């Protein structure tokens, strides 16, 4: 019996690990691309063919898409700070190299982008997939939007079938929205922006993987873009307090958005020469201090996607992971 072969980049990362596990459970043959020296022992149980390569070095990924039906491209720079060049090399630069390897070989290219590609620093409540997206000077979101353009351009010029996925803030065991926040809470505190009154705009990793698999297999998803955001009524105040309870901490102060935004911009300029993380970034303020509840009805209507794991169950899994990880 033929087993569809898929390529997963960023396979050893947070979302990639969950995706590979699910693909394995569903009978797919997996080729997992890992960065040279990356620890991917946890992928051995999936039966994946582990290959190493650096997406920013074209020669190191030659032939990576040979014999592959579908590419799930998750690899990229996932952080809120750093020089613009680093983001553009790791996101559109790497995506362009992978597209070059995929054209004429694969039946579908699924790119995991982000709702940050719509334009960071502004409210996104109600925004739909076809609404205009803007570059705002924040490297992560701008680089994601640029990579989306490369994928769409490859479809127009070379006929590559694609699907673009824009997840909201992805949480789950190992997420940066768990690990980084818990570490900050333990060391000091995480301030609320505008009293944390805006929706945290979360999507649980298992619910997201549901959507990724639908996007990679449904005909309706061909050459389309989808938001994935869980239908949870959870503000940043609630989420940060729920995480804080696990480690016995809580947010102590609230900062107005305009002040946090201004201070973050100054911090970024002051700390850039030293190549260390500033105390605050515009990217983090943009997420914590704006309403980012993008419209998720297209994924529901066209793909049949829905929030499967409720918030309470997601937080139980997160708490178990935090306690077992030593955080």
Kindly describe this structure.
This protein has 327 residues and is an alpha/beta fold. It has a domain at 5-171 and 201-233 and 293-309: Rossmann fold, CATH 3.40.50.720. Helices cover 40% and strands 14% of the residues. It contains ten helices and eleven strands. The strands form three sheets. It has a seven-stranded parallel sheet, with helices on both faces. Helix 3 (139-158) links the parallel strand 5 and strand 6. The termini are far apart.
What is the string of helix and strand elements?
EHEEEHEHEEHEEHEHEHHHH
* Low-pLDDT ranges: none
Number of strands: 11
Radius of gyration, in angstroms, nearest whole number: 19 Å
CATH-wise, what's the superfamily of one domain?
Answer: NAD(P)-binding Rossmann-like Domain
CATH architecture grouping of one domain:
3-Layer(aba) Sandwich
CATH topology of one domain: Rossmann fold
**Mean of residue pLDDT?**
95
DSSP helix fraction: 40-55%
Largest sheet: 7 strands, parallel
Structural class determined from secondary elements: alpha/beta
Our estimate of the beta-strand percent is 5-15%
- CATH top level label of one domain: Alpha Beta
What is the overall number of helices? Answer: 10
Intertermini distance = 44 Å
> What general form does the structure show?
globular
Strand order of the largest sheet: 3-2-1-4-5-6-10
């Amino acid at each position: 019996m033929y087993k569809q072969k898929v390529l997963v980049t960023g396979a050893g990362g947070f979302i990639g690990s969950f995706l590979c596990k699910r693909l394995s459970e569903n009978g797919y043959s997996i080729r997992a691309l890992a960065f040279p020296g990356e620890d991917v022992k946890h992928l051995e149980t999936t039966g994946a063919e582990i290959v190493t390569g650096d997406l920013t070095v074209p020669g190191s990924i030659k032939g990576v898409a040979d014999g592959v039906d579908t590419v799930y491209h998750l690899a990229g720079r996932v952080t809120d700070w750093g020089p613009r060049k680093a983001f553009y090399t790791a996101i559109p630069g790497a995506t362009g190299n992978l597209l070059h390897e995929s054209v004429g070989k694969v039946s579908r290219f699924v790119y995991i982008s982000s709702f940050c590609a719509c334009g960071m620093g502004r409210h996104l409540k109600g925004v739909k997939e076809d609404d205009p997206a803007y570059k705002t000077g924040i490297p992560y979101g701008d680089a994601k939007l640029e990579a989306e353009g490369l994928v769409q351009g490859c479809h127009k010029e070379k006929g590559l079938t694609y699907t673009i996925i824009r997840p909201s803030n992805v949480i789950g065991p190992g997420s940066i929205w768990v690990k980084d926040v818990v570490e900050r809470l333990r060391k000091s505190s995480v301030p609320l922006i505008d009293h944390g009154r805006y929706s945290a705009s979360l999507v649980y990793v298992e619910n997201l993987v549901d959507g990724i698999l639908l996007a990679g297999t449904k005909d309706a998803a061909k050459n389309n873009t989808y938001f994935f955001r869980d239908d949870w009524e959870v503000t940043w105040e609630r989420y940060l307090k729920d995480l804080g309870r696990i480690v016995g901490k809580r947010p102590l102060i609230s900062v107005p958005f305009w002040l946090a935004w201004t201070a973050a911009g100054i911090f970024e300029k002051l700390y850039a020469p030293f190549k260390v993380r500033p105390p605050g970034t515009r990217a983090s303020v943009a997420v914590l201090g704006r309403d980012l509840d993008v419209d998720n009805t297209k994924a529901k209507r066209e793909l049949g996607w829905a929030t499967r794991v409720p918030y309470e169950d997601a937080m139980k899994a997160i708490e178990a992971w935090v306690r077992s990880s030593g955080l």
